[in-house]
User: Fold these one by one.
Assistant:
Number 1:
Amino acid sequence: MIKKSAFLSLCVMLFLFTTGPAAAGAKEPYKIGGIFAVSGPASFLGEPERNTFELVAELINEAGGINGHPLELVVYDTEANPTKTVVAVK
């Protein structure tokens, strides 16, 4: 639960530092990675977390990105498997 709260706090901070709709596509995108258990036994948690991650990025991009840089998401599905989680992080 703490990780989810920290992630949402980070997203809110990123949203507050956006510059506006001007020139969102003019700069290189910032890549942000997310590792979620979208499938497998923990998918009831991972899927909503991934959806929130994508929604916040969409809102930030609609507002012009961060200092004119759009966000590009990289999402990995761990399938609630510890080995796949380690591989995805590396």
Number 2:
Amino acid sequence: MRTNPDYMRNKNMRNLYGIDLEDARAMLKAQHGLCANRACGKEIHIDGPRNERKGFVDHCHSTGAVRGILCIRCNTALGLLEQKNITLGLMEYIENYPLKTGV
């Protein structure tokens, strides 16, 4: 018996984010197939192989609210930035080690 390849993806999305695959596809379509981070604008997809163009559902870890579909780089960066100690540590690092010109 052949199973629906989207069945587990739908189940996982509903359990993790409260949306299904069709919701995610609609979100990405509303984003014109691009990463929700407008400064990035990388073309991404929901369906197909897992690769660098794969889109990831972004959600608030505090509320669980889904915000959009991000590329892997933006999703990873945002995940790290939401960890307050990492963000503050990086700000301190930049302040203590300013960019030196002409080096």
